[in-house]
Amino acid sequence: MSLPALVRSPFLSVKPKETIRAAERAETAYERKMYCYKAQYSLDCENGIENAVLLKPQTPEMLLEEKQFQEQVYAAVMKLPEKQAKRIYARYYLGMRVNEIAEVEGVDPSRVRDSIRRGLKQLGKYF
Hints:
Pfam families: Sigma70_r4_2 (PF08281). The protein is mainly α.
């Protein structure tokens, strides 16, 4: 490639100062984002750091304790009055919304909400 062809190259059409300013603006925007969202590390990297922080590997002891606790909570829920137990089970174990539970039972959603609230208050006394 001769010198005149290199000078006319599209790669050299961008001025170096504009490139530097664009990089500075991008870096400033990134720092502003980190400040606004109080990020301590980059959430853009794909190295799995978020999963390592959020999802700690569980030991067999931790798994056993969690299972035993879930069994205790389930047993405590089943000791509640029948309606409260059914509503709490539907809400938290089956993942139904309060409006869906009320529709299935044919009652007002506020009654379901109050029943669940009272049941959770009773469960709080067990634990």
